[in-house]
Amino acid sequence: MSKKVKSAGVTLAEPVEHDGKTYEKLTLRRMKAGDSLVAEEHQSQAKAGMALFAAMAGVPVEVIMELDMDDFMDLTEKAAPLMGKSGLAMLKEAETAGQ
Known about the structure:
Blueprint: E1 7-18, E2 21-29, H1 35-40, H2 45-57, H3 61-65, H4 69-79, H5 84-97
Antiparallel strand pairs: 1-2
């Protein structure tokens, strides 16, 4: 039986400042069922994905929106094993829509 990854850390090459706090590292937890509801609140698939990552990292969505693109791509890669099958399907759908 394989062990599920429970969390993943992403050290930001370009720290983000928001609301008086500097974010140098984000720690993602496994996706929960309720996180999918956060994503449903957004019409844009890109914003839905960012809201989902924010929920998984326990940070305001503005932090995710301000990430350097390389940091965002790193976050996306590290989040994938934490998202389960439905989360991965949502991620792939968002990537396809962006092409």
